Amino acid sequence: MAIQEIKIGFGDILRSSGLWRIKSVKFMDYAFSSLLAFLVSEKRGRALESSTVRDILIIRPGGIGDAIFLLPFLSFLKKTMPHVKIDILAEKRNAAIFSSQKSLCDKIYCYDAPGQFYKIFRKSYDAVLDTEQWHYASALVAYFCKSPVTVGFATRPLRTKLFSTPIPYEANAYEIENFKKLFTVLCPAVSQVNNINACYTLSQDSIAWAQKKLPENSVTVFLGASIPERRLTKSQSTELIRKILEKGFCPILLGGTDVSAIGLELEEEISDKHLKNFIGKVSLEQSAALIQRSRLFIGTDSGLLHLACAVGTSTVAIFGPGNLKKWAPQGPKHTIITENVECSPCTRFGYTVPTCEGSYHCMREIKMEFMKKLL
């Protein structure tokens, strides 16, 4: 589907999956941020001369998955333009990705920390890059920053007018390819970046901690997802864990507090000393270390799936409502599992609006037979 054909209205927000807290933010963006974008004049700027760049701001709202996709670009910029200071405007829920990679950025600010947020408007930047793909709020932040050059995706007409350098966006391209277009404005050589594999650096302390916690024959199973529709059912998870045990490996459970109850139920039902449950008990850095220690990561389309790629671990990526063309792991170390149902993907720009009336064939029909060829 071409980007011009994608329309997300009030009804789509209302019907979309997810927490009402998140939906309320999307409603605000749809109603008020769009109005402000309509009222302001078109952004004017100048061409960017890379040799003069000293300070840049990169805006990245959202979850940890999109944040991970920025890491190889930040690394490349720091290597090729070491004199440039890179500030990040993130959210509390994804800021840990950047703070854990201290060498890749200079200062981190958060939208949802007002005392930090307002500071970026007092600073001057040579360029501001908005890496958000759809919503207006981040584009407006870029618009009002003190910078002669603002770069962002031209996914909607009102977004386009907010940038001095609007960038075309391909709805079904691997997301690295879209981010390349943004960062090429700063440094044309970033075209060398091809994927997120092994772009996340762990501390030696974290590696040592994970080695004490897990044997070498561990397999991480991620039970969580941003929305319930992307998760495996309890019966699917039980079958998967039993197959891992049958093959002589140690299953490791990861996930957020939203799946803590499921993790405890699986522990009780399977009752095997080799099954280790870390759900809701570890930090992002510790999760990354446990995944890197594992022989294999198995999980649905999620931030932790991308984290597994980023630490260099082989993955089995299970796709249902998500867009595998955009987010599927790249390279021979990764296996993609999907039912290829006609209505998938039903997620666009963070809005999942299922048309299957609750049957969720894209996830419910997935069988654990793929485990026969793995491990």
Walkthrough of the structure:
The structure is a single chain. This protein has 375 residues and is α/β, with parallel strands linked by helices. The chain contains 15 helices and 14 strands. It has helices at 10-15, 20-39, 64-80, 95-99, 114-117, 137-144, 157-160, 175-184, 204-213, 234-246, 260-270, 284-293, 303-310, 324-327, 361-364; strands at 55-59, 85-90, 107-110, 127-130, 150-153, 165-167, 218-222, 250-254, 276-277, 296-300, 315-319, 334-338, 347-348, 351-352. The chain has a 6-stranded parallel β-sheet with strand order 3-2-1-4-5-6, with helices on both faces. Strands 9-8-7-10-11-12 form a 6-stranded parallel β-sheet, with helices on both faces. It has a two-stranded antiparallel ribbon with strand order 13-14. Strand 13 (347-348) and strand 14 form a beta hairpin. It is globular and about 65 Å long.
Write the layout of secondary structure elements.
Blueprint: H1 10-15, H2 20-39, E1 55-59, H3 64-80, E2 85-90, H4 95-99, E3 107-110, H5 114-117, E4 127-130, H6 137-144, E5 150-153, H7 157-160, E6 165-167, H8 175-184, H9 204-213, E7 218-222, H10 234-246, E8 250-254, H11 260-270, E9 276-277, H12 284-293, E10 296-300, H13 303-310, E11 315-319, H14 324-327, E12 334-338, E13 347-348, E14 351-352, H15 361-364
